[in-house]
Amino acid sequence: MTLYGYFRSSAAYRCRIAFNLKGLKPNLVSVHLRKGEQRADDFLKRNPQGFVPALETAGQVLTQSLAIIEWLEETHPEPALLPRDPFDRALVRALALTIACDIHPLQNLRVLTHLRNHLGQDQAGIDAWCRTWIESGLGAYERMLVDKGCSGGFSFGATPTLADACLIPQVFSAERFGADLTAMPTIRAIADHAGQHPAFAAAHPARQPDYEA
User: Fold this and answer.
1) Helical residues (DSSP H) of the chain, grouped into ranges
2) What are residue 113's phi and psi, to 5 degrees?
3) b vs e for 190-199, b when ≥16 Cβ sit within 10 Å of the residue's Cβ?
4) Residue 156 falls within a domain, yes or no?
5) For the domain that residue 106 is a member of, what is the CATH number?
6) What pTM value is reported for the model?
7) Same domain, 124 and 49
8) In the 8-state DSSP scheme, what is residue 85?
9) What is the pLDDT of residues 94-122, one digit of tens each?
10) With bands split at pLDDT 50, 70 and 90, how would you rate the model's confidence at 63?
11) Domain match, 100 and 190 both
12) Residues 60 and 153 in one domain
């Protein structure tokens, strides 16, 4: 298996966490997003969207981080990243999608580039844009955790799930853009707990071969 990604990509970060949790070590290939390598013809043949991650395996190319992680769950079911009960699975997916669909796309590189190049925003304006949607979205995630009585160290109980694979990269982005997580003690506790887990620690952007300060 070959996983195409970028050290700072939240979506690729999710996949690294999931692979680590499953005890799998794909070959990692860096696609430098800030240099535009995702728009090169050879990469667009793998993913016409020009996004990372992309996973090559068994002669197939898989795209979209949650689709890749769900494929991992189906082909390597242990340890499970989704609970068995259908309602619990729906909750974990809802938590994951809160980030993957409603927070992360608004801080994607192409959106930030458009804000700068076409709407005249400077870095301060771009950072403020990101903080707005990160704080709003993670605030909702916090309330979901509290409303459902989630406890045990991770977003759903004592073991990591798909939700945590999405949450921890988003917390990394929140810190990068200076978002205020003061009112989100549950999320902060989960992030601290996950930071002690080898699978999350090894997936951190600073631990990647293509890391740039």
Assistant:
1) 10-21, 41-44, 65-75, 86-102, 109-117, 123-147, 162-176, 185-194, 198-203
2) -65, -40
3) bbebbeebeb
4) yes
5) 1.20.1050.10
6) 0.96
7) no
8) S
9) 999 999 999 999 999 999 999 999 999 99
10) very high
11) yes
12) no
How many structural domains is the chain composed of?
Answer: 2
Asked whether the predicted pLDDT for residue 89 surpasses 90, the reply is yes
pLDDT recorded at residue 10:
98
CA distance to 31, 111, 145, 167, per residue, from 37 (Å): 6, 17, 38, 26
Stretch 119-148: mean pLDDT, rounded? 97
The token pair at 143 is: 């309330």
Task: Please name the residue that has the structure tokens 């608004």.
Answer: 106
Instruction: Please determine, for residue 163, whether its predicted confidence score (pLDDT) is greater than 80.
Output: yes
Burial class (CB in 10 A: 0-12, 13-18, 19+), 139: middle
In which domain, by residue range, is 70 found?
A: 2-79
For residues 112 and 144, state if they share a domain: yes
> Above 90 in pLDDT, residue 24?
yes
Considering the domain boundaries, does residue 208 fall inside one? no
